[in-house]
Amino acid sequence: MKAVVMAGGEGSRLRPMTSDLPKPLLPVADRPIMEHVLRLLKRHRLTDTVVTVQFLASLIREQFGDGHALGMRLSYATEPYALGTAGSVKNAAGLLDDEPFVVISGDALTDIDLTDLIAFHRAKGALVTVCLTRVAEPVEFGITVVDSSGRVERFLEKPTWGQVFSDTVNTGIYVMQPEVLDYVAAGESVDWSSDVFPRLLEEGRPVYGYVAEGYWEDVGTHASYLRAQADVLSGRVGVKRAGVELSPTVRVDASARIHPTAQLTGPVYVGPHAQIGAGAAIGEHTVVGAHAVIDQGAQLRRVVMHPHAYAGPGAVLRGCVIGRNTSLRRNVRIEEGSVLGAGCVVEEDAHVAADVLIYPGKTIEAGTTVSDSLVWESRATKSLFGPRGVRGALNSQVTPDLAVRLASAFATTLPRQGTVTVARDHGVAAQVLLPAMISALRAAGLGVRDLGHVPLPLARRHTAADDSHGGIVVTTTPGSEESVDIVFLDAHGIDLAPAAQRGLERVFSRREYRRVLSGDMGRLQAAPTSIEEYAEELTARLGTLENTGRRLKVVVDAACGSTALTLPAVLGRLSIEALTVNNALVPASSTETPAERRAALHTLGHFVATSGADFGVRFDPTGERLSLVDEQGHIIADDRALLLLVRLLTSQAGGGRTAVPVTVSRAVEQTALAHGGQVRWVATAPGELNRAAAGGGFLLAADGQGAFVLPQFSIYADGVAAFVTIAALLSADHATLSELIAPLPAVHVRQRDLPTAWRVKGQVMRTVVEAASGRKIDTTDGVRVLEDDGRWALVLPDAAAPVTRLWAEGPDPAAADALLDEWSAAVRGSAAA
């Protein structure tokens, strides 16, 4: 008699273990599940076996070959696509003889007596005999009801508890007469239990059920996978166990190396060539696969380490699965129920919380706490926050579930019964995520003022003006329409300071969210903004250009973004001739790539030059930034626009202070000093410019990338306010924009990023300070080395990524690059030391 082993399934419920490995090859006690099945067949003299394969078929063929190593004869039938349990056997019909055969799953662990099953089949004269077993919770399986003679009366696939008529379930093991394949259509997806067997019963064909007494485990979930390991280690399954028994229930391969001070508490298995270091503690129900390494002081309990995995010194692992070739560095902690796929890297001091799935090839950075599964994203970072709130691809990195948890964590950091102002842009992502976040805020007892779609500068102003305890604004990521930014604001409408970000992250990682009774849920208030009030206040503070000397003609490009809401009201109050383009809200244009923006600016330049306008302006989709083109249609670089505004404002005021981040050209300082002004250098972290502007005494704060803060009107970057200011200044000056730009100093600032592991960032900065000994340095943010000839270099460790960022400025690009090379070498040398 031949056997058919069904080994074509994907095992989707066991991902990430089966993301790149077919389920039959998953190791149980360091042997593939299917090897246990083949050994069972051999014990019952079923050595001539056909294996049906489909998903990652080549891996199964490579593992078992022709079966010679197991004393069997294996042949393979490959399905062109998934054909179902019956369709896969029909596909193998050409390899079967005209005699009864056994069908068995290649991914279930069992020691059922197949010889007795076959004898039962023959004694009953059955067309099909279904092997059954009794389980405590049959709702996960197909129930089979038999009469007193064993004849099957009814099949019921995946019943509810109300449909449970028996505790005998189908194991997927059958003995069949060859004519049963006549009931299976070739090339179609057909299932035994739902398609073929019910038809046989309708026709009154002899289908019997054999209730087996042996062990059977479906191994269909992560929990059952761990349970199967424990059962093999404890001897509850009649399978051949590898290794030599050093002590009761402690089995070790003869080639394994175990340090004398290591402690092994059975049942445990240590595979071939595995190594256990000094002081390591290997607890019960743990499997250490072939060539795996457990370093000194590591602690494992109820853990399955797949082959070639590594657990570093001091690692603590509980109730988890570690995929093959995965590396866990020093002091890593992996909690109950978590599963790491193959080839992952978990860096020092990282923590993977309970029930987290890490898909193959992911990296978890040092010190990171991971409490959500990593499926699509390539790495988990130490900090949730980036340069603009929390950022990620919609529905992969940033899901509605993640957004709810973020809002819950933010609410937990705020006073009970407080108020949060929320707003969004017109992108689809914001429309999807913000309602979910509003619900989470209210569930934590906070009132919510929903501004709806407004420009980001207005959302900041209302957060502060409405006496809210904080704010949330959801926008499309600049340059990536598939990505979303969730910006968290403090009570002043400014991006959360680093300390507040860390507080939110602690609540998020621990999932310690505040909940209130239903009667204490927060209220939702729709609070539409008054565009007219905004326009009136803006023009009242910055001027209407009525008495400034000349009437300007300007081309204004709203970029189909949020400024389309405010521009009509503002332009109606200005004494200028304005030609507006792209002044409509288009959800598909909620962001733009740098290339798209540059192309749009070239088009704007054409409009300006052909219409005889004085200049052109284009806003970004959120309304925070602007770009300029001169009267000839030439694009003005952002750093040159900053120098222009510094010159015009300081000369008009006869002095005054400007705040800029340390990454901006020192030409800003030269320009300000030339007109009696001063510059204050600030850190690059989000919100630092706003906090400086809120301190008073500033004419301007700007980031050199198109964002301008005019404290006379607002402490927030506002593209429309910057446009009104620039228009007023140009109206009072009879020179053209190109004439005003021409005498400004040239700017040659270059930037470079260098990968730097978290654990060496402090060492890198110490080395940089030592290398700068004897030179003037500024430590406002990172280390900025100031040369006597005006050159400078800045070395700044990134707060959210394992990267060191470098800037340098010189009299020309080559000089700036040379300075970057010098300090890049210092950073690399320190990181490698």
Structural overview:
With 833 residues, this protein is an alpha/beta fold. 28% of the residues lie in helices and 27% in strands. The strands form eleven sheets. An eight-stranded mixed sheet has the order 14-15-18-21-24-27-30-33. An eight-stranded parallel sheet has the order 16-19-22-25-28-31-34-36, with no helix packed on it. A seven-stranded mixed sheet has the order 5-4-1-6-11-8-12, with helices on both faces. Helix 7 packs across helix 8 (428-443), helix 11 packs across helix 12 and helix 19 (761-771) crosses helix 20. It starts with a strand and ends with a helix.
Features:
833 residues; eight-stranded mixed β-sheet; 57 strands; elongated; alpha/beta; eight-stranded parallel β-sheet
Low-confidence stretches: 161-165
Envelope shape: elongated
Mean pLDDT: 90
Provide the helix percentage: 25-40%
Radius of gyration: 35 Å
Spatial sequence of strands, sheet with the most strands: 14-15-18-21-24-27-30-33
Q: What portion of residues belong to β-strands?
A: 25-35%
Helix- and strand-based class?
A: alpha/beta
Count of helical segments?
20
Major β-sheet annotation: 8 strands, mixed
Distance between the termini: 66 Å
Number of strands: 57
Question: What's the gist of this structure?
Answer:
The chain is of the alpha/beta class. The protein is built from 20 helices and 57 strands.
Write the layout of secondary structure elements.
Blueprint: E1 2-7, E2 27-28, E3 31-32, H1 33-43, E4 48-53, H2 57-64, E5 73-78, H3 84-91, E6 101-105, E7 109-110, H4 114-124, E8 128-134, E9 143-146, E10 152-156, E11 168-176, H5 192-202, E12 207-211, E13 216-217, H6 222-233, E14 244-247, E15 250-252, E16 257-258, E17 263-264, E18 268-270, E19 275-276, E20 281-282, E21 286-288, E22 293-294, E23 299-301, E24 304-305, E25 310-311, E26 316-318, E27 321-322, E28 327-328, E29 333-334, E30 339-340, E31 345-346, E32 351-352, E33 357-358, E34 363-364, E35 369-370, E36 379-380, E37 385-386, E38 389-393, H7 400-412, E39 419-424, H8 428-443, E40 447-453, H9 456-465, E41 470-477, E42 480-489, H10 498-510, E43 524-526, H11 531-542, E44 553-557, H12 563-571, E45 577-581, H13 594-611, E46 615-619, E47 626-629, E48 635-636, H14 638-653, E49 656-661, H15 667-674, E50 677-682, H16 688-694, E51 698-702, E52 708-709, H17 719-732, H18 737-741, E53 749-755, H19 761-771, E54 776-778, E55 783-786, E56 792-797, E57 803-809, H20 813-832
Parallel strand pairs: 1-4, 1-6, 4-5, 8-12, 15-18, 16-19, 17-20, 18-21, 19-22, 20-23, 21-24, 22-25, 23-26, 24-27, 25-28, 26-29, 27-30, 28-31, 29-32, 30-33, 31-34, 32-35, 34-36, 39-40, 39-41, 40-43, 44-45, 44-46, 49-50, 49-51
Antiparallel strand pairs: 2-3, 6-11, 7-13, 8-11, 9-10, 14-15, 37-38, 38-42, 41-42, 46-47, 47-48, 51-52, 53-57, 54-55, 55-56, 56-57
Helix pairs in contact: 7-8, 7-10, 11-12, 14-15, 19-20
